[in-house]
Prior knowledge:
By secondary structure, the chain is of the alpha+beta class. It has helices at 9-19, 26-29, 31-52, 74-77, 132-144, 147-154, 156-161, 186-189, 202-205, 210-232, and strands spanning 88-94, 106-112, 121-127, 194-199. The protein has one domain (9-232).
Amino acid sequence: MNSTPRFSSRSIDFLKTAARQKNPNWLDRHQTEYDELIRAPLQHMAKELARELKKEAAGYHFPQKGIGRLKRPASRVAEYGGGLFKNYIGYTATRPSQSMFDSNPSLFFMINSEDRDGDEVLLAGGLYMPSSRQLKTIREKIAENAAPFEALFKTKSFAARYPGGFSDERKSTRPPRGFDPNHEKIEWMKLQGFFVWRSYRKKEYSSPDFPKLLASDAKQILKLNAILDQALSGRWPEVGAKRKSVSPIPEAPLDRISGDRVTLHTPDF
């Protein structure tokens, strides 16, 4: 009986090795390792996330095919200094956008074998690169009433996974034009992306229960995504208005393998 596909430190080592290869046929000769260490765990994770988040992520697309590709298209090789293979894998779940300029809030999983801060495996979500229209709209909503974001960031389950709320990785050094530089939330308005993320230890990502932990963490991100959707669609509560929950997701305890440590550094996604 086959064991549950899972990532391991060998998965990270495999990506490091792949990135150094100069022979375009290298992956063909290491297909078995690739399937065991990368593709099978990624496909299992994608399937489990789709199942676990079926209710909370209505309308999201969880790709099941064509994921985990390491070989770069020939047209992109020169762009990466001749590297034939990637040193990372990424997986994105989101809703299809109706605009060629805007993107929808998403869930993003990544293994980056060369992360400088030791955050090789991470989960992120929100809007990493909003369009100029989306950026301005969210900043305006924060200026009007930041309470929806504040309330979410203070909940026990969200704060346990994403302490501090928004990541400040993508942030302007100056207040954006047209916004009060003395506003109490000016630091949020300086953000150029509205997202959160967390990394995982070897004990976590090598566990057969890792997809369940990811799903549990993703449910918290989906709450943030729902608030971002609310801001972008113009359904924003006025100051002092009674507000219904934007996402009927119950509070859930951290998975037993998650431990009590959440490491935060600057990610490279």
